[in-house]
Amino acid sequence: MIGPEAGRRLSPLAKWWWWSLDYVYAGWRQAALLWDGRRAPRRWLRGDPALPEVVLLPGIYEHWSFVRPMGDALNRAGHRVLAVHGMGANRADIAETSARLARALGRRRTPDAGRVIVGHSKGGLIGKHLLVHDLAAAGRSGAGRSGAGRSGAGRADAPGDRGPLGIIGVVGIATPFGGSTRAWLLQQDPSIRALRPDDPVIAALRSAASVNAHIASIHPVWDPHVPNGSVLAGAHNVEVPVAGHFLVMRAPATVDAVRDAIGRLAASAAPSRSG
Fold first, then answer.
1. What highest taxon heads this organism's lineage (predicted)?
2. Residues linked to residue 153 through DSSP beta bridges, in sequence order
3. pLDDT for position 2
4. Sheet holding 53-57, edge to edge
5. What is the pTM of this model?
6. In 10 A of CB 268, how many CB atoms?
7. How confident is the model at residue 70, as a pLDDT?
8. Residue 144 has what pLDDT?
């Protein structure tokens, strides 16, 4: 556990140490695909129908096994949990993956309690993209009209609105909602270049600020992959006392923050469900 002030005052040696631990954990979770298998546990599909269904999205270069600890924790808390398969290492562009996710969710019955997307890093960006377009499809907002084609993202109405996929909100964990300045260093890789702050899709999502009330952004005190931070104006922002872009996913404080955020989103959507 690291306090906020300590996190901001980490020495170069301490940052190197946490960064090393970050990659050790990331490697372990990626290797977990070998023993976890390629499919999420079927028990994840069982849960309390009064609680929102959780859609788990990993980040770039991550498989579903990376988010398994979070899925297990949320399932134990009573949520039905979906892991979306067929994304590979999540290297496709945000808009394309958002469209594929929409098709996958569209083939399932929309739960009465709605859905919350919980995404790590790029997964949170995909979640916001889909949220914008799902609200637009509800016919109650202009979301998606300000941009053209697959990169479009625009405005949305206040919490309580729901689209046909039933998405009531997004919980992003270590998500670069404004893009990551670190992406400039690895821009030879198109999938990472797409996370630059000046990328058109990132810019369109940034302009879709009115949906931010449907979003919770949970972030560590120090994130080497998102040096410009994950704070999102208008969203519910929570800093958890841990360092690391990947290690944040294993912290009990993160699980608690995610559960609280889902509860907040469900409470905001309740008038819509009962109306």
1. Bacteria
2. none
3. 64
4. 81-83, 53-57, 115-120, 167-173, 215-222, 236-243
5. 0.88
6. 18
7. 97
8. 45
CA 111 to chain centre: 20
Q: Which residue ranges make up each domain of the chain?
A: 4-37+51-274
Q: Is 81:74 a contact under the CB 8 Å cutoff?
A: yes
Paired strand residues for 83? 56
Q: What is the pLDDT of residue 173?
A: 99
3-state per-residue secondary structure call for the chain: CCCHHHHHCCCHHHHHHHHHHHHHHHHHHHHCHHHHCCCCCHHHHCCCCCCCEEEEECCCCCCHHHHHHHHHHHHHCCCCEEECCCCCCCCCCHHHHHHHHHHHHHCCCCCCCCEEEEEECHHHHHHHHHHHHHHHHCCCCCCCCCCCHHHCCCCCCCECECCCCCEEEEEEECCCCCCCHHHHHHCCCHHHHCCCCCCHHHHHHHHCHHHHHHEEEEEEEECCCCCCCCCCCCCEEEEEEEECCCHHHHCHHHHHHHHHHHHHHHHHHHHHHHC
Cβ atoms 119, 127 nearer than 8 A: yes
Residue 103, class by beta-carbon neighbours within 10 Å (0-12 exposed, 13-18 middle, 19+ buried)? exposed
Cβ atoms 175, 202 nearer than 8 A: no
Nearest by Cα to 218 from 240, 202, 195, 233: 240
Task: Enumerate residue ranges in the chain where pLDDT < 70.
Answer: 1-9, 139-161, 187-188, 271-275
pLDDT at 43: 96
pLDDT on residue 112? 94
φ, ψ at 101 (rounded to 5°): -65, -40
Taking the C-alpha atoms of residue 227 and residue 233, their distance in angstroms, rounded to an integer, is 17
Residue the block writes with tokens 């980040």: 59
